[in-house]
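Please supply some protein, with fold tokens.
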Amino acid sequence: MRVASHDCPQNCWPRSDSLMRERHAVLTTRCGSGLALIACLLTSGLGAQKVPTLDAQAVTAWATLLRTHDMRVADTLAVDVAMASRVAPLRAAAARVIGLNRIVARYAVLRGMLRTERDTAAAGDAAFALGLATDSVSCDALRDAMQSPGVGNAAAWALGELGARCGDFSALLGTVRAPSVRASLLRVAVKWSPFPDSAVAGAYRSATSTSERWAALYACARSRRSACASFALSASRDVNAGIRDLGARLLATSLQAPVDSALDIARLDSMLSDREPHVRISAVRSLATYGHVAEPPLTRAWPLERDANVRVSMAQSIATVATDTSRLWTEWWTDTTHMVRRSLISSAWQVGAIARLQAASGDTLATHTDYRIRLAMIEGAASRNVDAQLQALLPRIDDVDPRVRAAAVAAIARATPAAKASIGFDSIVALRRADSLARASSPDTTTRPVTAGPASTTPEFYERIVRTVILPSLAGQVPELRIATARGMIRIVLDGVRAPMTSDHLSRLARADYFRNLRFHRVVPAFVAQGGDPGGDGSGGPGYAIRDELNRSGYLRGAVGMALSGPDTGGSQFFLTLAPQPHLDGHYTVFGTVVAGFSAMDALTQGEAILNISTVPP
């Protein structure tokens, strides 16, 4: 994924106005992102190039390659046939399969592609695959590839996967002149141990592009080291929102000298009125690291703040900022947004202010009419001394909501054996099991039958994906998903070439109405919005898993990825990337990109309903 401007890095945020956001999204999605080449040409006017076509032999070769990848076998014949194709995207797919399936016997082929492959996209995927393989024999080839136009960024990422095994970071960085490749290498600097403080700080000082400066600051922020601390104040005033955001993060007290704390707090205070919500969120989080002295700035900012996710961040930070007698507990409870209240409850439990919050609510929170509030109270109690909370937790075992009952039992299970014995916990669990069996014949509102069913492994199944997903994508008929929410429509362009099986899988679920009335069960401001779990707690799915289709599409703002609990565990849960997250690159399948509906995406809060997801074409 690339942006149109050479100086605006992959991690630049667009201007605030919606038109610029949409134009930025279209260009970053369709240029160099693995989507159909023709789509890029139509939207960005890069000139006429030949669109690859597939004959019957190529269709069979690609289908066989998909099956090889899906079955995780080292089928060198399938790879060799694909590598011999005149179709560059098929050769690129073969390169990725070598890395994903760890086909050691063909690593030399990947190294050869770095020297001889004329298609830069395919050569880039060869470099990416060597990174997936973490093949240290390829270090020299990857170092050389960093100098190759169109391949250098992928080679830099791959070197990051290998880290110090491929040499000293400073020496590697010194061999690179292209600003975009230097930025790519800086983004993975945290993979080196020890962290190359002086090299990263020096790169920031000498940077000739915004992308390099952003990457250097990002590396420092990820490392949690103070290498860039001296640049934090100037970065916080930068014209680029992404730079300001990192400047705010670097102003956290753990990264700054105590002598400068008053100046740092004053700057963070002023950043609470930044025009970008993500910058304000980072300012809130950094302010909270200064403890009680941050209460006045947050008190002033609260009534002026209208963004729900910024307020959620404030509520999450109050535990380190306010005392248990602070008036903030009373004032902030007047916000009826669920996630604000849930965050306040969690914070109140942390500092022993739950009684204060109870008084502010004028209600008994443990028996609140909203089951989500009751859940939050149980979670808060479980985070403290559970033995001391047993009498409060016991009544919730008989709650009318099954989610609350389950949470109460799980919380009590964390008590000491003596405490559990005192209330007859084993008998309670036995009764609940019997109750569960009695309810087994009733519909479970937390799960959902999957009419789409798991994928087949027949040759015909994979040929169908080639013909209905890959071929149309190559021809510019890029498939889409459209997420309907109360905030508006979010339009996603699928990567039918680099993630064809994932694109097909999600599309089949959408056509089966699988996502109707599910929720975004996890929204972390300035990070991700995750949804697609019928259980609503992050543990559910369709009852089967699909293979990862890792590719080098980056986790820029708007990237759509598969949520995982480990390798090859994708099901129905996906996430929208709310801000650039390069540390996710190459580790979670990117299967699409948001190209419209950024305002709706930004407005999502935890618990937001997915009204439905539809496909285009239907």
User: Anything to note?
Assistant: The beta strands are 480-485, 488-494, 518-520, 522-524, 528-531, 559-562, 574-577, 590-596, 608-616. Residues 56-71 form the longest helix (16 residues). The chain has three domains: 56-324, 363-439, 474-616. The CA atoms of residues 77 and 414 lie 53 Å apart.
